[in-house]
């Protein structure tokens, strides 16, 4: 293209100065040496990124879940007995094991099961117990989000990378609350009030689940939300912390009693 400044190997433009928003929020463009290949091809079973081109390899997580789509993997942590059905009690116990308190767990359970139950029910009648059916979770997809999941529950690497390429201001390696707000505002589709609300609640939940100490949700932690691997990881961390606290609480009274005897 004569007169146009293009990146090496690039035969198209991703932004034009006449539309400043395209300059402000540039999409992910693969570079020479990037580990991620075929970013535009949706993966049925792997949530991949440039940093994790093979998905989640810790504890063979990706290998163990090749029979599930990524959107199904997203919720299997909450399916406590692996029967393909998530009861409200399953969601509540999952939240408690994750480390959330009783009130927050109850609120999360209400939102999750009431919001996802009916779209996944295999009939036109709602489920009286607000159960979520994992096999039909792809039916719960809504608009005004990142579109990282496709309509069949696959994972789209390009859309995932775009979140951070476009909205990670300052290249922090993640998103802070301000980045998420801009992302949410710009992803809204006209008159999609349900999608606006659902997207906002999902990112609030994501922030609460990750709860970053520095206020920045790291890219790989967010990817772990998409494939559900971070839920198992954090639940194990919470279990270890609780076990340590229990040991300390058992040890402390004995030490105090011994100190009293000495004194």
Folded structure, characterized:
There is one protein chain. With 263 residues, this protein is mainly α. The protein contains ten helices and four strands, in the order αααβααβαβααβαα. The chain starts with 19 loop residues before the first helix and ends with a helix. Mean pLDDT is 92; it is low at 259-263.
Q: How large is the count of helical segments?
A: 10
Helix content: 40-55%
Regions with little confidence, pLDDT below 50 for 5+ residues: 259-263
Largest sheet: 2 strands, antiparallel
Mean pLDDT: 92
The tally of beta strands, per DSSP, is: 4
Question: What's this, in brief?
Answer:
The chain has 263 residues and is mainly α. The protein contains ten helices and four strands; from the N terminus they run H-H-H-E-H-H-E-H-E-H-H-E-H-H. 48% of the residues lie in helices and 3% in strands.
């Amino acid at each position: 293209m004569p007169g146009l400044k293009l990146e090496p190997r690039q035969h198209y433009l991703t932004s034009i100065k006449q539309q400043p928003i395209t300059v402000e929020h540039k999409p992910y463009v693969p570079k020479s040496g990037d580990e991620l290949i075929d970013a535009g091809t949706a993966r049925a079973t792997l949530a991949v990124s440039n940093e994790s081109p093979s998905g989640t390899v810790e504890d063979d997580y990706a290998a163990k879940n090749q029979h599930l789509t990524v959107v199904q993997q997203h919720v299997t942590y909450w399916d406590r007995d692996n029967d393909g059905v998530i009861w409200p009690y399953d969601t509540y116990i999952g939240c408690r094991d994750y480390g959330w308190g009783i009130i927050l767990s109850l609120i999360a359970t209400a939102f999750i099961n009431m919001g996802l139950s009916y779209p996944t029910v295999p009939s036109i009648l709602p489920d009286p117990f607000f159960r979520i059916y994992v096999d039909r979770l792809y039916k719960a997809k809504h608009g005004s989000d990142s579109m990282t999941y496709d309509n069949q529950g696959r994972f789209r690497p390009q859309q995932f990378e775009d979140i951070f390429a476009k909205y990670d201001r300052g290249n922090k390696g993640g998103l802070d609350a301000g980045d998420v707000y801009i992302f949410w505002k710009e992803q809204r589709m006209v008159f999609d009030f349900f999608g606006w609300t659902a997207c906002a609640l999902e990112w609030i939940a994501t922030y609460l689940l990750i709860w970053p100490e520095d206020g920045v949700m790291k890219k790989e932690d967010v990817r772990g939300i998409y494939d559900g691997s971070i839920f198992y990881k954090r639940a194990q961390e919470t279990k270890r912390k609780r076990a340590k606290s229990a040991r300390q609480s058992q040890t402390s009274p004995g030490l105090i009693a011994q100190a009293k005897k000495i004194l």
